[in-house]
Amino acid sequence: MSVGLLAVVDDILSAAMRASAKTAGVVIDDAAVTPQYVQGLTPARELPVVWKIALGSIINKYVIIIPIALLLTAFAPWVLPYLLIIGGGFLCFEGAEKALEWFGVHHGAHDDDGPRDEKKLVLGAVRTDLILSTEIMLIALSSLDPGFGIWMTLGALLVIGLAMTVVVYGAVALLVKVDDIGLRLMKSASRGVRRFGVRIVASMPAVFRVISVIGTVAMLWVGGHLVLQNLSETLWAGPYEVVHLVTHAIEAAGPVIVWIVETAMSAVFGLILGLIIVGIMTGVTRLVKRDAPADAAH
């Protein structure tokens, strides 16, 4: 009996590891997005806030996402590709907004002035996590063997949910405290250690910029790939066939080159789609704002 149980656990862990590998892009994005929510807090509140967001992430996954995903898998599996298209479109939209902000073309309505309200901060971070965690869990679910069985699938999703939360928020906690580590090193009696601490503190702004770029590229790549793949399975196979034709033509260059080209094409598609969505959303927002005074006058 114990041997059988160990075999089941091994199967669940193996499936969870394989499925988790395909969520890497969203995980990178999640880890890159979250540190912005704790910037501006006092050092003493950074880790408690990260813990609250991580707890909210676990609740998102275990209470909301996994039960709904399993119900849809059991009773309406045809809905999942459409949810992935919607989620992928959202990632493309977010990535395109960030890309535009780099060039000063588009500015989101972010207000960073004044003291930060921890409750609002945590709620905002947990809402963002809900979207990204949904993508992580749906990608993981779509990567599991359809014949795995409901309980094995549940076990794998629970493992993936916990592992991804630990990885993301462990990385976030480390990132937000690295500068504190540098400050401690700057107080060392050793001159070399003090210099190393200064370098750490001085490098953190650049580190966060690099992480932001990686997160944005990952967002566009994952979002574009999700839309391309699931669009081809539901409504329109044309764009995905173009990617397939290009990658097929360069197969002789090796799998690494094929992966780079496919990833780049997914990211470019994601950027184009994201820019279209940004344009639509901007137009709708302007129309609503223009009509609002007229409605108020009546």
Please describe the topology of this protein.
Elements: H1 2-21, H2 24-33, H3 43-75, H4 79-102, H5 118-143, H6 150-186, H7 191-234, H8 238-249, H9 255-297
Keywords:
298 residues; mainly alpha; 84% helix
Description:
The chain has 298 residues and is mainly α. It is 84% helix and 0% strand. It is built from nine helices and no strands. The protein has helices at residues 2-21, 24-33, 43-75, 79-102, 118-143, 150-186, 191-234, 238-249, 255-297. Helix 1 packs across helix 6, helix 3 (43-75) runs antiparallel to helix 6 and helix 4 (79-102) crosses helix 9 (255-297). The longest helix has 44 residues, at 191-234. It starts with a helix and ends with a helix.
Subunit arrangement of the protein: single chain
Q: Report the major sheet.
A: none
Low-confidence stretches: 109-114
Structural class: mainly alpha
* Percent of sequence in beta strands: under 5%
Tell me the total number of β-strands.
Answer: 0
Average per-residue pLDDT, rounded, comes to: 82
Number of helices: 9
What is the N-to-C order of secondary-structure elements (H for helix, E for strand)? HHHHHHHHH
The end-to-end span amounts to: 74 Å
CA-based shape: globular
Short note summarizing the structure:
The protein is mainly alpha-helical.
